[in-house]
């Protein structure tokens, strides 16, 4: 795979990961009611996310309520919120920086070395964004797992388990890390050596011709 194709593939993967991370941050299904066990399943399904909690009835009606107070939230929710916001900001700046540094764009074509460095910087931003998403989702999942097995006196179908937003977040982190790693493969040092060799070879060729 050529350098330009690798950068384009990395950019598209990182962009898809950023969009998925945005969807995961907004969705309220970070944890949901467990339907395991032999007890009768209730007609109301509960979902909780970083910003709101929802109750879905068997009739299809869904009621959501935003979290009222930031300070009253659990520490893991506040931490996951902060990590997701940082991840989205890093990814946003990574999108802008990577567009400038990619070989398929016409911005800064006169200096390919600097252009490759900008692409690497965009890849680093994407990698950091993916790590923040991975940390936020994993932290929340660890808390859900701990509470599921800790509450032994509560029926299984009254506990919470992983929601769909967690799996979207893990997929988003994987795509963003993959795309950022591909962008980081742009190596400006090789291009610099090639340019120096080309400049040194020109005078000698001219002298031999004369």
Give structural attributes:
membrane; about 210 residues; transmembrane; alpha+beta; single chain; cell membrane; Butyryl-CoA Dehydrogenase, subunit A, domain 3; 5 strands; structural molecule activity; about 10% strand; transmembrane helix; five-stranded antiparallel β-sheet
Helix content: 55-70%
Q: Using the alpha-carbon principal axes, give the shape.
A: elongated
CATH class of the domain at 3-27 and 73-188: Mainly Alpha
The CATH topology of the domain at 3-27 and 73-188 is given as Butyryl-CoA Dehydrogenase, subunit A, domain 3
Can you give me a brief rundown of this structure?
Pfam families: PMP22_Claudin (PF00822). 63% of the residues lie in helices and 10% in strands.
Task: Write a structural description.
The chain is an alpha+beta fold and 210 residues long. The protein has a domain at 3-27 and 73-188: Butyryl-CoA Dehydrogenase, subunit A, domain 3 (Up-down Bundle). 63% of the residues lie in helices and 10% in strands. The protein has five helices and five strands. Strands 4-3-2-1-5 form a five-stranded antiparallel sheet. Strand 2 (44-48) and strand 3 (52-57) form a beta hairpin. Helix 1 runs parallel beside helix 3 (112-150). The protein is elongated and about 65 Å long. Mean pLDDT is 80; it is low at 194-199 and 204-210.
């Amino acid at each position: 795979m050529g350098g330009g194709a690798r950068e384009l593939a990395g950019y598209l993967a990182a962009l898809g990961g950023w969009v998925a991370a945005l969807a995961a941050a907004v969705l309220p299904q970070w944890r949901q009611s467990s339907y395991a066990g032999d007890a009768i399943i209730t007609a109301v399904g509960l979902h909780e996310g970083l910003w709101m909690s929802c109750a879905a009835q068997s009739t299809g009606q869904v009621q959501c309520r935003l979290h009222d107070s930031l300070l009253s939230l659990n520490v893991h929710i506040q931490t996951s919120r902060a990590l997701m916001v940082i991840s989205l900001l890093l990814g946003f700046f990574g999108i802008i920086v990577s567009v400038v540094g990619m070989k398929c764009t016409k911005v800064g074509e006169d200096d390919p070395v600097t252009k490759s460095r900008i692409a690497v910087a965009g890849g680093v931003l994407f990698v950091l964004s993916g790590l923040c998403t991975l940390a936020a989702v994993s932290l929340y999942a660890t808390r859900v797992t701990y509470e599921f097995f800790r509450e032994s006196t509560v029926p299984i179908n009254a506990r919470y388990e992983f929601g769909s937003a967690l799996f979207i977040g893990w997929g988003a982190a994987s795509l963003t890390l993959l795309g950022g790693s591909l962008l980081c493969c742009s190596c400006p040092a090789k291009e610099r050596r090639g340019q120096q060799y080309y400049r040194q070879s020109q005078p000698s060729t001219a002298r031999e011709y004369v």
